Amino acid sequence: MTSPDHFTVGILLFEDAEELDWAGPFEVFGMAFKDFPNRHLVTIAESREPVTCYNGLRVLPDHDFSDAPPLDLILVPGGMGTRTQKDNRKLVDWLAQTAPRCTWVTSVCTGSLLLGAAGQIDQKKVTTHWGFIDSLRKAFPNTEVVSDARFVRDGQLVTSAGVSAGIDMSLWLLGEIWEVEYARTTQRMMEYDPAPPYADSQTG
Amino acid sequence: MTSPDHFTVGILLFEDAEELDWAGPFEVFGMAFKDFPNRHLVTIAESREPVTCYNGLRVLPDHDFSDAPPLDLILVPGGMGTRTQKDNRKLVDWLAQTAPRCTWVTSVCTGSLLLGAAGQIDQKKVTTHWGFIDSLRKAFPNTEVVSDARFVRDGQLVTSAGVSAGIDMSLWLLGEIWEVEYARTTQRMMEYDPAPPYADSQTG
Questions:
Q1: Residue B146 is inside which H or E element, if any?
Q2: Which helix (H) or strand (E) element contains residue A36?
Q3: Would you say residue A180 has pLDDT above 70?
Q4: CB-side exposure of B55: number of CA atoms within 13 Å?
């Protein structure tokens, strides 16, 4: 794979998206792209109105579905909002049309549910938030849902576990799409050398 | 220290703040407070206009300086914006007035520079982004600036290293202000069991 100079990452936003699901990847790509004028990071929502996320953060999306630029990578966050958005025909249709045109299709946490609703995970290997593994298996019996992974790659589809795992996935993507050293530099600049303070807290 | 039921966390926003500096702590407190109607998380900026952060994210603050509620904990993020905000008299004065009324005064990354400009780190032990340690030492010779720590506590002042370190600090605060188990539950829900993909990337 060549190392693309022109590249656009689009992050999908919707009501009740979980903040860190998208803000972690936003930081990774934003910091990495800073000195590269042809690498773009945009947020996209159904409308240009402020989007209120699950914990109350209000964000102004850069684009709506009608004026979003062509994307090389789409990132779909999770959160409680996925439970209603999976039945939002406008969003699901947009995702079903947009994902096949992207080189990389990615999700964080329960964003996998929206990729599923848009027909993007059939016969694929994916992961999701540990608390949603069983639900996703039931909803998509033709999908192999992996537990205990920070992220899973199946071809050009990359799905991560819950919330903070989107940071790990995004750093990995930098290394895969460009170079490992590019990912390392970004990781160093954002001091992602994490030390959870209560270390015996492991995920389910 | 008693375990407070009523509690308000205020996150300061300003132009060119680094996104994850505040979005990481926002996620930690937002997720932790979700089932507690008396625990509040608000964003505060000089005005109610949208704030454009360093990587382009546009956020609508909940309050401006004139209508911010009394805070129990203030969190000051860093980012390139701190270099201009340290000379913004309105912001620095607000911080100098507000911090002494809070039980906890905290910063992430170069947010320490703004706490310093507001007179909050004199004779204190603090930390900051690894790339800013020397600058902070020069700017505040009466402050002990610690390197190689994810976060440093000095009494009720808690300062973290760069960007992602604010997540570690915020989880620690949950355990310190309430209970360790409360922090562990939050950590588990946000799957903060990080695994940086290129593990030999250590910070400077």
A1: none
A2: none
A3: yes
A4: 29
Q: How far apart are CA A120 and CA A139, in angstroms?
A: 13
Across chain A, what does the average pLDDT equal?
95
Percent above pLDDT 90 for chain B: 92
Residue B164 carries which side chain, given as an amino acid letter? S
Could you report the predicted ipTM of this complex, rounded to two decimals? 0.94
Chain A residues in contact with B131 by the CB 8 A cut-off are 189
Residue B126 tokens, joined: 């603090």
Q: What pLDDT digit, counting tens, does each position of A115-164 carry? A: 999 999 999 999 999 999 999 999 999 999 999 999 999 999 999 999 99
**Residue B132 DSSP class:** G
Residue range B7-189 in CATH 3.40.50.880: yes
Nearest-CB residue to A198 (from B24, B184, B202): B184
pLDDT tens digit sequence for A98-116: 999 999 999 999 999 999 9
Partner-chain residue, chosen from B56, B130, B197, that has the shortest CB–CB distance to A168: B197
> Per the residue annotation, which of A45, A75, A108, A109 is the catalytic one?
A109
DSSP B11-76: EE--TT--HHHHHHHHHHHHHHHTT-TTEEEEEEESSSSPEE-TTS-EEE-SEETTTPPP-SEEEE
Report chain A residues whose CB lies below 8 A from the CB of B189. Answer: 131, 162-163
| Catalytic hit among B20, B99, B109, B133 | B109
A53 labelled catalytic:
no
Q: Beta strand A125-126 with A104-107: parallel, antiparallel or unpaired?
A: unpaired
CA-CA distance, B109 to B102, in Å (whole number)? 20
Cα B33–A59–B117 angle (5° rounding)?
A: 75
